[in-house]
Amino acid sequence: YAQPGDQRVAVIGLGRFGSSLAGELMRRGWDVLGIDTDAGLVQKYSDGLTHSAVADCTDPEALRQLGVGDFTSAVVAIGSHIEASILVTSNLLDAGVSNIWAKAISRQHGQILERLGAHHVVLPEHEMGERVAHLVTGRMLDFIEFDDDYALVKTVAPDVATGMPLGQSRVRSRYGVTVVGIKRPGQGFTYATADTVMERGDVIVVTGKTHDVEAFSELS
Ligand code: ADP
């Protein structure tokens, strides 16, 4: 994991994934070293990054010169060049980077990166595809699934659960879901309590078993 107090991340590969990630880290106040072999891309993003460099990170010497070994966190945002992604990940491991995130473009690619020792592997296309499947088929506004079949869902409050305090409507025992947040039209989200009364048109955030939160979001 990221080291408390160390607010630096090296992002290797400034394609669509890497550049979006680097931009968000910058907006969140982190220091970002962005590296790409493509000078045009580095030029394009350099103004928005703390540091940037044109370098081939399959070369351990290039990483050493840039001081990447001093970083605790690095992201390998190289998808389409699988060989480069593997070499760069192994170089970062050799350099002692302790929080390596790597993007994979296929499950096989992801397996290799995990086997190699990458600490976190993400499959953006696969994960997003699965997530959108849940949204397309139902009425959920947003959906995140965690391990063990557990999900967090943003949805519209079903009529069956409106008009009385959550404590009385027994949403948890009846439907197996917990309402954690509620948003009235035109207002922000606030946390839900046993006294919260949901009204028609409220947007809510609920947690529970994937099957249960999906069934709950289908109620009207
Ligand atoms: P995306 O799908 O997010 O656009 P790509 O896999 O197409 O991602 O982009 C990966 C980026 O990584 C490209 O900009 C490419 O130039 C860069 N890249 C590829 N190999 C290396 C390397 N050895 N060192 C640094 N950057 C690299």
UniProtKB/TrEMBL annotation:
Residues 138-220 form the RCK C-terminal domain. It comes from Streptomyces ficellus. InterPro entries: NAD(P)-bd_dom_sf, RCK_C, RCK_C_sf, RCK_N, Trk_Ktr_HKT_K-transport. This is TrkA family potassium uptake protein. Pfam families: TrkA_C (PF02080), TrkA_N (PF02254). SUPFAM superfamilies: NAD(P)-binding Rossmann-fold domains (SSF51735), TrkA C-terminal domain-like (SSF116726).
